[in-house]
Amino acid sequence: MLVTSVSEFRKDIKSYLDKVTKNLETLIVNRGKDKGIVVISLEEYNSLMATSHELSSKKNETRLDSAIEKLKGGKSFTKDLSED
After folding, report:
1. 3-state SS assignment for residue 80
2. How confident is the model over 11-53, as pLDDT tens digits?
3. How far is CA 25 from CA 8, 21, 45, in A?
């Protein structure tokens, strides 16, 4: 995680944004006491939104937990997908 001030961010914005996108870094730009902005890559944002959707209902959360437990317990299987 990177942390910077607004002034430093403004001075070297391209470098900071390159680090966020290329290294999947999270950047916090401080704007005063207990205030700030978080900058993340689009890839990271999309991942967070997908996770949020998967956990948005109790049914989805239960199904995901069940699948994880099966995998941990060695109760998983592989299946070839047919190409039609």
Report:
1. coil
2. 999 999 999 999 989 999 999 888 999 999 999 999 999 988 8
3. 17, 7, 12
